[in-house]
């Protein structure tokens, strides 16, 4: 009962009473007894006040220390975006030295990123970068849509797209288009300038560091660079854009004119509309001539099988197959498709009828989307 009674007292007085009772048991209590003088009583009050002051200072000091620790945790969290439990563990291991803890977090993060590299990454973003006569699109993947919306992830994607503009086509691919895998970029140097990730490093190390920050598998999947001649423009459209230069679906194409461009703004407007059409209509081929023989024969066989099931004559079956094949071309061939803003026109009809610009040629068209 005595304990519970004392528990209601302030902590300083409670500790002081314990100290006095201990002193009393050793025979040198300073408490006044029946014959204690007024001076001794005054000394006792002064001693009690001094002790309470000491207890107060000690607890205030501990509180200040805890506040400093919380401040360091907050600072390191803002610097690295690492999970709070990892931030605190690194600070404790490094004796609350924030610089050493940040370095330690980066070391730990790379190990964790390597462990996560086998996990499936099906979310992500496409990033677009353009300069005069050239455009580059890269796909950067992650595991969740939450990370895909993170500002550091978005910053890295845009930085990779800008670097992809300088990738050179050394293979025998379609002139004007260069598709490449991550190996073409991984060893290139990247100069990052972001509050949470900065300095010069390789692209591979930058991807690994961001993966460590995010706690997910992050990988550069692929990229495409498209260029045109001096008489053309490259236009692109991004769908589902969280911010300029980023999206989940991209349409990109090259337009060229026979002579020197005289109305650049008008040509770029046509390009933007056609890039939007690519996203909406999802063409598989640029022209009918571009449809591969395997695809054409396979589609013709399917259509013929469907026509035979109607029981009509051989001549009627051939006409049915030809008609349905034209319909197939209108669905998958860019130049044969109905223009999505005006379905009374095909793309090739739009090309002939566009009054604001000279006759133009669609050299290349491409649609990309994240996995």
TrEMBL record:
Keyword Membrane appears in the UniProt entry: no
Name of a matching Pfam family: EF_TS
Signal peptide: none
Compartment annotation: Mitochondrion
UniProt GO molecular function: translation elongation factor activity
A biological process term (GO) from this entry: mitochondrial translational elongation
Keywords: Elongation factor, Mitochondrion, Protein biosynthesis, Transit peptide
Keyword Mitochondrion (UniProt): yes
Residues annotated as domain Translation elongation factor EFTs/EF1B dimerisation: 135-350
GO cellular component, one term: mitochondrion
Family the entry assigns: Belongs to the EF-Ts family.
Functional note: Associates with the EF-Tu.GDP complex and induces the exchange of GDP to GTP. It remains bound to the aminoacyl-tRNA.EF-Tu.GTP complex up to the GTP hydrolysis stage on the ribosome.
Stored HAMAP family: EF_Ts
PANTHER family linked to this entry: ELONGATION FACTOR TS (PTHR11741), ELONGATION FACTOR TS, MITOCHONDRIAL (PTHR11741:SF0)
Protein name: Elongation factor Ts, mitochondrial
Source species of the chain: Gossypium darwinii (Darwin's cotton)
């Amino acid at each position: 009962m005595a304990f519970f009674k004392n528990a209601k007292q302030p902590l300083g007085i409670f500790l002081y009473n314990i100290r006095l009772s201990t002193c009393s048991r050793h025979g040198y209590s300073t408490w006044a007894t029946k014959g204690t003088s007024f001076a001794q009583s005054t000394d006792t009050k002064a001693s009690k006040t001094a002790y309470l002051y000491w207890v107060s200072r000690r607890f205030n000091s501990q509180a200040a220390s805890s506040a400093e620790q919380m401040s360091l945790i907050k600072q390191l969290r803002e610097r690295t975006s690492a999970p709070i439990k990892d931030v605190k563990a690194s600070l404790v291991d490094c004796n609350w030295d924030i610089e050493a803890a940040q370095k330690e977090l980066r070391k730990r993060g790379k190990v964790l990123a390597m462990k996560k590299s086998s996990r499936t990454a099906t979310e992500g973003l496409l990033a677009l970068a353009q300069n005069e006569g050239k455009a580059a699109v890269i796909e950067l993947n992650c595991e969740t849509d939450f990370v895909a919306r993170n500002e550091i992830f978005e910053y890295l994607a845009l930085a990779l797209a800008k670097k992809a503009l300088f990738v050179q086509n050394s293979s025998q691919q379609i002139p004007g288009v260069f598709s490449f895998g991550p190996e073409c970029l991984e060893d290139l140097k990247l100069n990052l300038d972001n509050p949470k990730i900065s300095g010069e490093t390789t692209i591979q190390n930058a991807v690994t560091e961001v993966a460590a920050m995010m706690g997910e598998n992050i990988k550069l999947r692929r990229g495409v660079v498209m260029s045109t001649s001096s008489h053309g423009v490259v236009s692109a459209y991004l769908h589902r854009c969280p911010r300029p230069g980023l999206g989940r679906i991209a349409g990109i194409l090259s337009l060229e004119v026979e002579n020197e461009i005289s109305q650049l703004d008008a040509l770029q407007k046509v390009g933007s509309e056609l890039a939007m059409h690519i996203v909406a209509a999802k063409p598989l081929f640029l022209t009918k001539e571009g449809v591969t023989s395997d695809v054409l024969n396979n589609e013709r066989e399917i259509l013929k099988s469907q026509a035979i099931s109607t029981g009509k004559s051989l001549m009627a079956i051939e006409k049915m197959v030809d008609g349905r094949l034209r319909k197939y071309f209108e669905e998958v061939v860019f130049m044969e498709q109905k223009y999505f803003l005006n379905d009374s026109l095909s793309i090739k009809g739009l090309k002939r009828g566009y009054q604001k610009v000279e006759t133009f040629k669609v050299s290349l068209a491409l649609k990309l989307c994240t996995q």
